[in-house]
Amino acid sequence: MAKKPTLDLTKYVRFYEQMVYIREFEELIGKEWNNAAAHGMGGYMHLYSGEEAIAVGLIGGMDLSAGDCFIGHYRDHGYALAAGSDPGEVMAEICGKATGCSKGKGGSMHICDAARGFYGGYGIVGGNVPIALGLGWALKYRNQKNVCACFFGDGSMNQGAFHETLNMAQLYKVPVIFALENNGYAMGTSIERSHANQDLRSRVDSFAMRSVTINGQDIFEVHEQMAQIIQEMKEDPHPVFVEFKTYRYHGHGAADTPVTQSTYRTRDEVARAKEEKDPIKFAQTKLIELGVLTDEMITDIQARAYASAEAAMKFSDDSPYPDPSELIKDVYA
Amino acid sequence: MARLRYADAITSALREEMLADDRVFIAGEEVGQYLGTLGVTSGFLKEFGPMRVVDTPISEVGILGLGIGSAMAGLRPVCEMMRMDFAMVAYDQVINHAAKIRYMFGGQFKVPMVIRGPSGVGRQLSAQHSQSLEVLFAHVPGLKVVMPATPADMKGLLKTAMRDDNPVIVMEALRLYFEKPDVLDAILPGLSEVPDDPDFTVPFGKANVLRASTDVTLIGYSAMTIQCLKAANIMAQEGISAEVVDLRTLLPLDMATPIASIKKTHRAVVVQEQWGLYGCAAEISAQIAERAFYDLDAPVQRVTGAFVPMPFARNLENISFPSEHDIVIAAKRTLGR
Ligand SMILES: Cc1ncc(C[n+]2csc(CCOP(=O)(O)OP(=O)(O)O)c2C)c(N)n1
Ligand SMILES: [Mg+2]
What we know:
The structure holds 2 protein chains of 2 kinds.
Chain A: H1 9-32, H2 36-39, H3 52-59, E1 69-73, H4 77-82, H5 87-94, E2 118-122, H6 128-141, E3 148-153, H7 160-172, E4 176-182, E5 185-186, E6 189-190, E7 210-215, H8 219-235, E8 240-245, H9 258-261, H10 267-276, H11 279-289, H12 295-318
Parallel strand pairs in A: 1-2, 1-3, 3-4, 4-8, 7-8
Antiparallel strand pairs in A: 5-6
Helix pairs in contact in A: 1-3, 1-11, 1-12, 3-8, 5-12, 6-7
Chain B: E1 2-3, H1 6-20, E2 24-28, H2 44-48, E3 53-55, H3 60-72, E4 76-80, H4 91-98, H5 101-104, E5 114-119, H6 134-138, E6 144-146, H7 151-163, E7 168-173, H8 181-187, E8 193-194, E9 208-211, E10 216-220, H9 223-237, E11 242-246, E12 249-251, H10 256-265, E13 268-275, H11 280-292, E14 301-305, H12 314-318, H13 324-334
Parallel strand pairs in B: 2-3, 2-4, 4-5, 5-7, 6-7, 10-11, 10-13, 13-14
Antiparallel strand pairs in B: 1-8, 6-12, 9-11
Helix pairs in contact in B: 1-7, 3-4, 9-13
The complex binds thiamine diphosphate (TPP) and magnesium ion (MG).
């Protein structure tokens, strides 16, 4: 039997730290939403709290500087932060500032970072999935030893576009990771109420595509499995469907209040998920057990993460709104 | 008379028609258990049950297919698009199917369905959630396109749509949904009033003169009609009296009413929310040129949205679609002022 490779524990401490940074970033937005207009925030606002291990573990397994890339949907702040995008630029985008990564023109749902291979967050459910096929195709076309990850939610799987794409991806053997963030709900609609077959992973069996289910709350499982899969995809290009089981803490978006949430889930359910399935707590406990994380380190990481989020907000607050001349720029290349 | 918000008028129309005709059902995302994304179908699931208030997956093609097929088979579906932008996912069902079936099969079938949902600029909803795509529908024979501006028209036109035997696209102005009756009535007295009569309907193809006057004709529809009224109020303070014509429906299009107005004022400004190029205002301006050229004292002016995807930043969003001040400027141009 092959010996299980030993974990690179410093890497996991870094992942832990990244998750805490994302959490603090999102929670600060959640808190400042009361004051949204003053910051320039508005419209929809989808927070990633609870799902951090997926972006951190998967993106952390890719080599972005060597050409790996990814694309996401509108719940996209965490993807950018996991890829190492500047938190200030992400926050400034969320607030519609000139210094934002999309120059303030996209907002919260449309974060991107071309330099880090982040091809953007998209607002039409399922709309990003076919584009991932093209991103993967380009990698294969140029014989690159790279992969593309495509993040989407369980709701996307009920779009026709999803099924067309998976068929073609398997047919052409493109190196795309179809990363399903199965958080149990599409807005206020549970899996049970929207998927005839609730075993979502098995829905892609008809494409004869390789697939795997991963506990998206466990950064170790996410990363170890994805690192292995990515390596295999680079040796032999092929698509993989990954179902990450996860849970979202906040409402679907800012408009999904406690009142509207009560139509589809109980406060108890949310509290239980936070208690039992929190990816940060999980990593924390395990890293302490493994002797690489201490209480002092936790306090320190927490403080730095909070300071980073605050600094991002300050950077955004200090930034100007786009110049009116920006209105007509970048319509065409 | 009741004083209603635009959103309440939608609820009222849907509910009355569902009570009156058991062939009517509603299908869409979050219309039932969630009580409607914007609350217009709140309580409907409880009142009408799951066969008449159908919560669907996020499957716009499926939703519209459900509508078209069941309409052909004798039901009267109302398909809700959570936002009209999402209808683009299922554009094929609308354009290549719903619009064609009557004609292509020589009149053997009809498709009595309504496709409705919020449309247009909201607040910082950005490029994929702020579009006014009415021209994409109004270009296509076989469809009808309804763009209500007032609560009364919202109710009356939606009821007419639900009784029509054709596929009707009802595009609701998101920005008007929750405008309070007091705010509306301050723009024009009585603007929020909706008749109580359950048989109240508003016919298609009949534009409405909301404000009669003599100096210049402002032609709008949907949220832009409200902008025209605001512009007229500003101009009134400067001694210019503007007539405001609300088109109400783009397909069928009533040009007789705006042209009668232009014969009086000899000046016209056509206002639409989004992109001017090849837009509805272009069509209306062309018809004015064809039918009332010699009545005009000045070239027809168009006021339209900037030719860009909707930006997120609030300051850019604010300058991307017509304000009442843009309309005033255009109106003054026709007056040489
Ligand atoms: C085509 C389309 N239909 C509807 C919507 C409205 N909408 C936005 S997000 C969403 C729920 C998506 O849920 P899921 O895919 O599970 O992702 P999650 O938000 O849970 O991360 C809906 C219905 C949309 N944006 N696009
Ligand atoms: Mg989901």
